[in-house]
Amino acid sequence: MARDIHKAGSSLPPYFSIDPDAALAELDAPTGTAGFAGIAAACAAGRTDLASRGMNEEGKKELRLFSTWEITRYLIPVAQAHFRRVLKANPDLPQGRSETEGGAKWFTLEEVLRLRAFFAAQGSKAKDYQPYRPEGLPAKMVAVANFKGGVGKTSTAAHLAMSAALDGYKVLVIDLDSQGSMTSIFGGKVDDEWQTAFPLLARHYGEHLRLENQRRLDRGDAPQPLDEALDAAMEMTAQDVIQNTHWPNIDLIGAQLNLYWAEFQIPVWRMAARSWKLWDALTERLEADGVLDQYDVIFIDTPPALGYLTINGLSAADILLVPMGASFLEFDSTGRFFDMLHSTFASIEEGENLAARALGRPGLAFEWDAVRTVITRYDGAQQGELAALMQAYMGRVLSPHKQDFTALIGQAGEQVSGIYEADYRDFNRETYARGRETFDETYAAFKKLLIGVWRREALQEQRAAE
């Protein structure tokens, strides 16, 4: 029998002297296709168990309450004493509830939004009770993308959405990743691809096919038939797939595994109708269904690959955010991601503009209002030098704000919730304040970008009207 040489004080590494019979004894039986189903079922059961810990008795996620301390520190810029005086003078306003007699008052986010609106209408005009939002302009769409996994893509998108909601914006989150992590964060229920963005893409193709068929009939040619799936999609709108979440001002278009089918179906449609502009599908359907007028900010979480769903998300976006870690491999991978973006969109432009020139039509040119990379899970003690090097090479494209990794991030992740969903009483005020500070700064950097983009567009419209 082989003895454990390491327990005997040997300095040899653990991969020496592995006994073949001992290794065989620990080996499982070979795994067939059915084995994957068993592993998936075990993970599904565990996922359900973990997710249920953030749900109420009805099996739904429920947003926590917010204390007077939180409201006056983070949400409504007034002193606590003034806040209390306003509530006392206006008994019709939400008064909150105390968990103990004489204890702190706690409010739902719906109540906070109502209070914010009151202060905006009645309070000092010098304070920003409501976030900047030019009238008459559509929602800004923000894609969060990188084909490198583990960079905090979904976490960044989710926390920005929550930050914007707490700030008073009306938010829509679109999950284009078939893994459905964003959908899980917001407690979405998606049974199949017909409750995802897929029917919006299918309807866009179906409408194009109908126009093409009319042209065929006008020429005397036979039309291409619409299959049952396309017929069903033609009856659907964005409102059919948008669902409420436990956040009163965040809605969701969710995702699940079947959404990946779109990566196979879209090229089939494209081959059948080469003139179909697949990259416009998501944007034009959201616009046609009035979604861009119903929300302030739309966050799009893309898959970690540059496929057809990602192309739709990137094409729809006004702002592109690319999370990345401060490591050589992630810096290298992100550079290759941008190289692939250039190749992909340049190829689309070249193909479209070749035809446009021949027909005397305007050419196609993709454009984004702003593109930023964001360093996530940052450890200043270990990664400061590399981050400075990345900043030197990337310049303004790399946001100077770095999202620190804190213990609170890990703890919130274990609870299947975002930082802003965590109750500070589970830590303490000081730990909570330090932990959320890096996310507040991340949102502040994004909000400055968002406001700048909106302001530029508003001024352009103003000058055009003069």
UniProtKB/TrEMBL annotation:
<keyword id="KW-0614">Plasmid</keyword>
<feature type="domain" description="AAA">
    <location>
        <begin position="140"/>
        <end position="329"/>
    </location>
</feature>
<dbReference type="Pfam" id="PF13614">
    <property type="entry name" value="AAA_31"/>
</dbReference>
<dbReference type="InterPro" id="IPR027417">
    <property type="entry name" value="P-loop_NTPase"/>
</dbReference>
<dbReference type="InterPro" id="IPR050678">
    <property type="entry name" value="DNA_Partitioning_ATPase"/>
</dbReference>
<dbReference type="InterPro" id="IPR025669">
    <property type="entry name" value="AAA_dom"/>
</dbReference>
<protein>
    <submittedName>
        <fullName>AAA family ATPase</fullName>
    </submittedName>
</protein>
